[in-house]
C-alpha cells in the first residue's frame, strides 16, 4: 500500500502552472504538506464538491492542467459527477483519489471501497476516458505521468495506507483562499 | 412584448456568462436549448444541482462567470454545497423555476415549493421573486450585478404563474 504524503508530494513536485483543488479532510492536509501554493484551493467542507469544482475550473482554464486531489469518501458522495466529467470530457482535468477505504478524518470508519465498491470502475462507467487503480510504487510512477500529462479526463485511484498522517493544516479563510488563487492563477486582484 | 425567456438569455449574455449549469425543468427548456446552441456558452448538464454550485465556484476560480438553472425542488439538493459559495464569497446566480404553487397538480412538489425561499435565505442567498413577464429581464440583470459586485448568492424565483402551471390531460397519475 502507498503512503499518501509521499504520493502527493511526488504528484505535485515541480508542478509548473498546474492548478489544484483539494478535497476536504486529509487530502487537503496532504497537499499543504507537499508545499503550500496560492494555486491550491483547499476545501474545508462542501463534501462532494472537489470533483465538480475541478470540472468548472478545468472548463474555465482549458490550457492548464487542473488536478483534483481528494478522498474516497468525498468522491463517493459526488459519484454522479463522474458522469458529468465523462460527458464534458475536459482533456486538462485529472482526478487523484487517495483511497484509504476509510472516512479517515472522522475516525476511520470504513467506506464502501472496503466493501466492494471500485471508484475506478465507477469513473469508467461514467464515461471517464482513462481510469486506473494504483497499488504499487511502479504503478504510481506511471499514474503520476498520466495524471500530469495524459489526455484527460484522467482518474487514478491510489490505494493508500489507512493510518493518518501528522496534522498539517492549510489556511481556512475562504475569501482569502479565493482571492489568492485568482491573483496567482489569473493575475486578477479582487476588491 | 418580447418573450421573457429570451430576456433571461439576453441578460445572461450581457452579464458575461460562459458556463450554464442545469438540471432541466420545463420552465427552463427554451433557455437550455438556446444555451446549447450558443457557441460561446458551455451548457453543462448536471446529475444533481449541488454539482452546479461547486462547478460555478471552480469556474469563478478560473475567471469564468456562470449561472445555475434549477427548479424549486433542486434547491433542496444544494443546501450544504451553498456553504462553499457563502464561506468563500463566490458570486452565484441561481434562476429557480417555482413549482408547488400557482395551479400545481402534483402534491410532491409542495414541500419544496413552499419552503424554497426560506431555505435559500437561511443559506445566505438574496431572493428576488418574479411573477410578471415585464419584470424578468431587469430582475435577472440586477441579480447578476448584485452577485458579481457583492460576492454573494442571488436567486431569482420565477413564479409558477409566470411560467404557466403544468397541465396534464389525463387525471394525474404521477
Ligand atoms: C456533508 C458532510 N457529511 C459528513 C461530513 C463529515 N466528514 C468530514 S471529513 C469526512 C471523511 C472524508 O473522507 P475521505 O474523503 O475518504 O477523506 P480521508 O480523510 O479518508 O482522506 C467526513 C465524513 C462532512 N464534513 N460533510
Ligand atoms: Mg478516505
Would you write up a description of this structure?
- The complex is a heterodimer of chains A (191) and B (174).
- By secondary structure, chain A is of the alpha/beta class.
- Chain A is built from eight helices and eight strands, in the order H-E-H-E-H-E-H-H-E-E-E-H-E-H-E-H.
- Chain A has a single domain (4-186), classed as Thiamin diphosphate (ThDP)-binding fold, Pyr/PP domains (Rossmann fold), CATH 3.40.50.970.
- In chain B, strand 5, helix 7 (133-150) and strand 6 (153-158) form a beta-alpha-beta unit.
- The radius of gyration of chain B is 15 Å and the shape is globular.
- The chains are: A alpha/beta (191), B alpha/beta (174).
- The interface between A and B is large, with 39 and 33 residues.
- Bound molecules: thiamine diphosphate and magnesium ion.
- The site of magnesium ion has 7 residues of chain A, from helix 4 and strand 5.
- Magnesium ion binds at residues 71-73, 100, 102-104 of chain A.
Which key features would you list for this structure?
heterodimer; A: 191 residues; alpha/beta; Rossmann fold; six-stranded parallel β-sheet; two-stranded antiparallel sheet; 8 helices; 40% helix; B: 174 residues; globular; binds thiamine diphosphate; binds magnesium ion
- The count of β-strands of chain B is 6
In total, how many domains does the architecture of chain B comprise? 1
User: How many structural domains are formed by the residues of chain A?
Assistant: 1
The main sheet of chain A orders its strands as: 2-1-3-4-8-7
Q: What's the rounded overall pLDDT mean of chain B?
A: 94
User: Count of helical segments of chain B?
Assistant: 8
Which stretches of chain A are poorly predicted, pLDDT < 50 over at least 5 residues?
A: none
Helix content class of chain B: 40-55%
Mean pLDDT of chain A: 97
Please write the string of helix (H) and strand (E) elements of chain A: HEHEHEHHEEEHEHEH
Strand order in the largest sheet of chain B: 2-1-3-4-6-5
Oligomer: heterodimer
Distance between the termini of chain B: 35 Å
Amino acid at each position: 500500500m502507498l503512503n499518501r504524503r509521499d504520493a502527493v508530494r511526488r504528484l505535485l513536485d515541480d508542478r509548473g502552472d498546474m492548478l489544484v483543488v483539494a478535497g476536504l479532510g486529509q487530502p487537503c492536509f496532504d497537499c499543504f504538506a507537499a508545499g503550500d501554493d496560492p494555486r491550491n484551493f483547499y476545501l474545508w467542507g462542501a463534501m462532494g464538491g472537489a470533483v465538480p469544482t475541478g470540472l468548472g475550473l478545468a472548463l474555465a482554464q482549458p490550457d492548464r492542467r487542473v488536478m483534483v486531489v481528494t478522498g474516497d469518501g468525498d468522491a463517493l458522495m459526488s459519484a454522479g459527477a463522474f458522469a458529468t466529467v465523462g460527458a464534458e470530457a475536459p482533456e486538462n482535468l485529472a482526478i487523484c483519489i487517495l483511497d484509504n477505504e476509510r472516512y479517515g478524518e472522522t475516525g476511520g470508519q470504513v467506506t464502501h471501497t472496503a466493501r466492494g465498491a471500485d471508484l475506478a470502475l465507477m469513473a469508467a462507467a461514467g464515461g471517464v476516458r482513462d481510469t486506473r487503480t494504483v497499488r504499487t510504487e511502479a504503478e504510481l510512477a506511471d499514474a503520476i505521468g498520466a495524471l500530469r500529462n495524459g489526455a484527460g479526463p484522467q482518474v487514478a485511484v491510489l490505494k493508500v495506507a489507512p493510518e493518518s498522517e501528522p496534522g498539517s493544516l492549510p489556511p481556512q479563510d475562504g475569501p482569502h483562499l479565493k482571492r489568492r488563487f485568482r491573483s496567482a492563477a489569473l493575475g486578477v486582484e479582487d476588491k | 412584448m418580447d418573450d421573457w425567456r429570451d430576456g433571461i438569455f439576453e441578460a445572461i449574455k450581457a452579464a458575461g456568462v460562459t458556463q450554464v449549469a442545469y438540471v432541466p425543468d420545463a420552465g427552463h427548456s427554451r433557455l437550455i436549448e438556446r444555451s446549447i446552441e450558443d457557441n460561446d456558452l458551455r451548457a453543462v448538464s448536471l446529475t444533481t444541482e449541488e454539482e452546479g454550485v461547486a462547478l460555478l465556484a471552480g469556474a469563478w476560480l478560473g475567471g469564468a462567470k456562470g449561472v445555475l438553472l434549477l427548479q424549486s425542488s433542486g434547491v433542496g439538493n444544494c443546501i450544504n454545497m451553498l456553504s462553499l459559495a457563502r464561506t468563500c464569497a463566490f458570486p452565484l446566480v441561481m434562476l429557480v423555476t417555482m413549482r408547488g404553487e400557482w395551479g400545481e397538480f402534483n402534491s410532491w412538489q409542495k414541500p419544496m415549493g413552499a419552503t424554497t425561499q426560506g431555505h435559500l435565505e437561511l443559506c445566505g442567498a438574496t431572493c428576488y421573486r418574479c411573477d410578471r413577464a415585464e419584470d424578468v429581464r431587469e430582475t435577472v440583470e440586477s441579480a447578476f450585478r448584485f452577485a458579481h459586485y457583492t460576492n454573494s448568492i442571488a436567486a431569482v424565483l420565477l413564479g409558477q404563474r409566470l411560467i404557466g402551471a403544468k397541465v396534464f390531460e389525463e387525471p394525474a397519475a404521477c
